[in-house]
Amino acid sequence: MRTTSPKISLLLTGGGARAAYQVGVLKAIAEWYPRVHHSPFTIYSGTSAGAINAMALACYASSFRLGVKKLEWIWSRLHSRRIFATSPTGMLGFLGHQWFARLQAHHHARPPFGLLNNRPLRHLLNQVNNYNRIEKQISAGNLHGIAITASSYKSGDSVSFFQGQNSIEPWDRARSKGRRTLLNTDHLLASAAIPIVFPATRIGQAYYGDGSIHQLAPLRPSLKMGADKILIIDLINQKLEQPDHTRAPGLAALGGHLMDTIFSDTLAADLENLSRTNTLLGNFSPSEQKQHKMRIIDHILLCPSKSFEPLARAHYGQLPPMTRTLMRLIGISPKDDAAITSYLLFEPGYIQALIDMGYEDTLEHEAILRHFLN
After folding, report:
1. Is residue 137 included in any domain, yes or no?
2. Any idea which residues are catalytic in this one (predicted)?
């Protein structure tokens, strides 16, 4: 049973294969704790690939180092074929099935569209996640709550599916909902379903896609679950190279710009709002803060110190041949349009490079992070 202490939330944003960076950050933090120490985080909030990482850690909230070690083991052995179908038969058959389904009469149910078949990812998540452990960690007091955010194509709302202590209440805000449920693979697949790339996932009577699409307030799930502190590991791409402004942006440049905007811009706005609120509350006494049911929320934002694109270019040759062919057919050069490639390069060389980057960046901020997690 956890003793009474400030509730620290770990917020993991989305970014496809870039989420390997988060594994490196957590690997460094885990080394600061004894082998059997519980997780310093009692609240987890994840979106897209960050949701997959959050779930893996929450299952082992009672043994932080074990959870991180298992997460690193999974990522370091990833290949694209474990995420989506990469064989010629698998890719062409999947696209052909969708094309044929759309030629049928409208009364026939049509599958959700996606360029890539993510069925292998479903199998992987079913193998590595023991969802029954979540409720056990909650009952033992090691886990206060975990939220997985997805976007509803039916309502246009950002829906955070959460599982946690009974004190956590569902919420209904503008374009943002919190719904208590028993989390499973469908919630993770829905949260990670990048539009056009992966098909949407059906939960109940509605289809859901990537949680970053309509997420206007990424901090809200952590705050609604009672977080006192929030550690955010963002996957924004650092633009360290000057783009060629004389060259018209192509499909990949537009797609990469759009995806970077979806995954990061709302977080920046939400953090700015939180900072203003903290400044305002700093002028109130503790009793006044309590009276207004508001409190100062300490937070730290970690993001990559380097751009993902040079690494994606260096490792793009590891992409399966059919994936590269499909990208070229729709006007994307895997090497030249590295912003897109950096999301889809689930190959060992690239993944390990991101893990190493996250590890090194964390060590540079060790003193600040240790104080924050104390």
Report:
1. yes
2. 48, 210
Residue 258 domain boundaries = 8-237+251-373
Phi and psi (nearest 5°) for 64? -60, -45
Residue 48 is among the residues annotated as catalytic for this protein: yes
Residue 3 located in a structural domain: no
Structural domain contains residue 1: no
So what's the pLDDT on residue 54? 97
We report the CATH number of the domain holding residue 280 as 3.40.1090
Check residue 84 and report its DSSP letter: S
User: How far is Cα 20 from Cα 350, in angstroms, rounded to an integer?
Assistant: 9
Q: In angstroms, rounded to a whole number, what is the distance separating the alpha carbons of residues 72 and 302? A: 19
pLDDT attached to residue 278: 87
User: 318: which DSSP letter?
Assistant: G
pLDDT given for residue 4 in this prediction: 67
Number of domains in the chain: 1
- Residue 48 to residues 60, 209, 309: CA-CA distances in angstroms? 20, 9, 20
Q: Is residue 305 part of a domain?
A: yes
Q: Which residues, in sequence order, are CB contacts of 338 under 8 Å at separation 6+?
A: 308, 309, 310, 312, 313, 316
Active-site choice (9, 48, 158, 176): 48
Tokens 């803060």 belong to which residue? Answer: 289
Both tokens assigned to 194: 């990048």
**Are 358 and 21 within 8 A, CB to CB?**
yes
Residue 97 DSSP one-character state: H
Here the tokens at position 134 are 């979540």
Q: Which two tokens stand for residue 373?
A: 């997690």
Decide if 297 contacts 230 (C-beta within 8 A): yes
Q: In angstroms, what CA-CA distances link 262 with 14, 137, 268, 308?
A: 9, 32, 11, 17
How confident is the model at residue 232, as a pLDDT?
A: 97
Active-site residue flag, 210: yes
Give the residues of the chain that fall short of pLDDT 50. Answer: 1
Q: Give phi and psi for 289, each to the nearest 5.
A: -60, -45
Helix or strand or coil: residue 235?
coil
Q: What's the confidence (pLDDT) of residue 268?
A: 83
Reading the block at residue 106, the tokens are 């409208």
